[in-house]
Amino acid sequence: MERLSQILTRIDGKGYKAYKDIQGEYRFGKFTLFIDHVQGDPFASPSRIRIRVSQRITKHRPEWLKNALRQTALEDWWVRKWAERIGRFSRRTTGTGKSGLIAIDRPGQQILKRAAAVVTADHLEVRLSVGLPARGRTVLGKQARQMLLEDLPQLVDETCILREADFRSIEARMQLVDNQQAIREEMDRNGWVSFVADGSILPRKSGINDQPLRGESVIPFRTPPSFKVSIAVPHGAPITGMAIPRGVTLIVGGGYHGKSTLLKAIERGVYHHIEGDGREYVLTVPDAVKIRSEDGRRVEKVNISPFISRLPFGRATERFSTDDASGSTSQAANIMESLEMGCSCLLMDEDTSATNFMIRDARMQALVSKGKEPITPFIDKVRQLYEEKGVSTILVLGGSGDYFDVADHVIMMDHYTPCDVTEEAKDIARSYQLARKREGGESFGEVTPRFPLAEGFDAHKGRKEKADALGLDTIQLGTGRIDLSALEQLVDPSQTRAIAQILRVLGEKVDGSKSLRELIDEVFAELKQQGFDAISPYRRGHHPGDLALPRKLEVAGAVNRLRSLEVRGE
Predict the structure, then answer these.
(1) Tens-digit pLDDT profile for residues 255-279
(2) The dihedral of CA 418, 288, 496, 452: what is its sign?
(3) Which one of 19, 259, 517, 561 has the fewest beta carbons within 10 angstroms of its own beta carbon?
């Protein structure tokens, strides 16, 4: 601590690059400060520091670390506590650019594995971004001393010494994730793809605010009796709710009655949510994928022949490529790419699907013969997909009752309340026999693995590597940009930043010998073993601290949207 004070006094008034002298490790009374990276000027990306606090100070209970799920929940709890307190200390000092900034990666409503905090049996380590004070490009040593030698120790005192209320809060978090995991295990035993607890608050404040909607008009979720199950959990009374079995499930109802709201909650149920979110006990199989049409996306040698064949001019679809996919070809590619990665459940909304991909009614079949129509609609493949591949579908519909014939379950949303109308839908299907003919053959078709080539992963921009996120929906890789806006289960920009780094690492691995799924599995095995150091662009321990773990499916989605991607077939 004294050594850092001396350096800051010595460089006071010098050029900004003199701050490089403070890089290193410094012992304080209750913590160790690591200054890993110093920004090049006051306007550049902030400097990166780590604060390591001994277990003697934090007094973590051993049971909080007894499994990986609890460890992630504890680390998430620490990040939220620092995020809550840090605002009181940020920008206390004045200066140019980012001077005085103290920041941490801020979580949303999901509990994600993050680089911002690491808890071990020995210590807590928190990763922060700081803006070192300057006037113009001149070091403000006195202000830096206040920031690093006064404000940081006070922040550690206020944040890292646990009070009784903190112990209660952490225990509540541990009990929550234990219960969530118990529900997931019960889902697996019983063959359920999703569970929605009674009393859940599904609607959000707005399309850009993921916090729960509040007010007297909000209707808590209530399970139809025929779908109701009760699950014993480790903490508290059994939790009751709606269990959606494997198979084909339709969510129907009039406009603005809550169909898409229910599906949105189900698609976010692949993650665990924090207490108070309203969807704490809305849980979905972790590899469920939201599918939509995506006009204009690039497709690289995807086997879309189960859905689309016999294109004009004899164009093959077993290795289909295009720089400008239509709604139907993009939706077909999105499904086949998800199957390639091993997903077990598709989530689809009629509103964001290509109409001609979803249904071809009898009148259109009569006018346009199958010989002239290359598209086999999803209605003719959805049962084969489940019966042959074991892949379930949850589908929101408002306009096509033809799907009643192929559904296992039909849930109708009526004034935001679900009702089981399966038998009624089946009666209607029997009364109104379809004149349309099934298309697409007697089997689903093949899912073909693809083997990426190194040429498509160039992360260089000039002489430097460039792999970074531009918000939630865009990645800059080398000179190209990847649009991820159709990956609706991507929930945090820190996940996008992690995907960018994973793409950079994949570029070092690909040589055409391994499939895309094998490559991604390999990187995730390294992440499990090494943590975020496995994808850090910096030397060990010096990663930026603003990464969160994505799913393999979103990583594959980013690879598939690389406009430079090149693959070979099997």
Answers:
(1) 889 999 999 999 999 999 999 999 9
(2) negative
(3) 517
